[in-house]
């Protein structure tokens, strides 16, 4: 009797374990589409903060191309850059970049460059900088990063692409110089990368129909 009871309990436990696993797996698989769509929407929102819909009519997420430059863009793995187009003509490119010299580690960014070589905008995607000091690079904390908008390799000249403490033109934060210095250097290097490779970048084929067109 005891053996039969143990056997039945074991079977019941096994059944419930399988049932629980199936429910968890089903929930996980069923949520993957939602998770992917949420990630896609977050990516699109970040891109549109730099190049708004009024400036392009393609899907930047679908006009994406692999890039893995570690020297100038600081990338530690392959990522994607995005081309914004108006009626098929490129108007801006948004690059991924990593400032490796942050005070507490990597600062992951996206940096938009107009086809005329001026900065369209930049956003910090992730960082571990000190709250109240270095986190001013985050657009949610301050508008400091907007100071790069419309800047280029000629405005200011390359030797002035530094924070003011280093005799450049860009502000630093009170008590925090390392973080804005790292970001400023990375934005400059992204401009230089675009300047060197723009011919190959801008000739990339259109990878998706423009929105509203067949």
TrEMBL record:
<keyword id="KW-0472">Membrane</keyword>
<keyword id="KW-0249">Electron transport</keyword>
<keyword id="KW-1278">Translocase</keyword>
<feature type="modified residue" description="FMN phosphoryl threonine">
    <location>
        <position position="177"/>
    </location>
</feature>
<feature type="transmembrane region" description="Helical">
    <location>
        <begin position="12"/>
        <end position="30"/>
    </location>
</feature>
<dbReference type="InterPro" id="IPR007329">
    <property type="entry name" value="FMN-bd"/>
</dbReference>
<keyword id="KW-1133">Transmembrane helix</keyword>
<dbReference type="Pfam" id="PF04205">
    <property type="entry name" value="FMN_bind"/>
</dbReference>
<comment type="similarity">
    <text>Belongs to the RnfG family.</text>
</comment>
<keyword id="KW-0997">Cell inner membrane</keyword>
<keyword id="KW-0285">Flavoprotein</keyword>
<dbReference type="GO" id="GO:0005886">
    <property type="term" value="C:plasma membrane"/>
</dbReference>
<dbReference type="InterPro" id="IPR010209">
    <property type="entry name" value="Ion_transpt_RnfG/RsxG"/>
</dbReference>
<keyword id="KW-0812">Transmembrane</keyword>
<comment type="subunit">
    <text>The complex is composed of six subunits: RnfA, RnfB, RnfC, RnfD, RnfE and RnfG.</text>
</comment>
<keyword id="KW-0288">FMN</keyword>
<feature type="domain" description="FMN-binding">
    <location>
        <begin position="102"/>
        <end position="194"/>
    </location>
</feature>
<keyword id="KW-0813">Transport</keyword>
<keyword id="KW-1003">Cell membrane</keyword>
<comment type="function">
    <text>Part of a membrane-bound complex that couples electron transfer with translocation of ions across the membrane.</text>
</comment>
<keyword id="KW-0597">Phosphoprotein</keyword>
<dbReference type="GO" id="GO:0022900">
    <property type="term" value="P:electron transport chain"/>
</dbReference>
<dbReference type="GO" id="GO:0009055">
    <property type="term" value="F:electron transfer activity"/>
</dbReference>
<dbReference type="GO" id="GO:0010181">
    <property type="term" value="F:FMN binding"/>
</dbReference>
<protein>
    <recommendedName>
        <fullName>Ion-translocating oxidoreductase complex subunit G</fullName>
        <ecNumber>7.-.-.-</ecNumber>
    </recommendedName>
</protein>
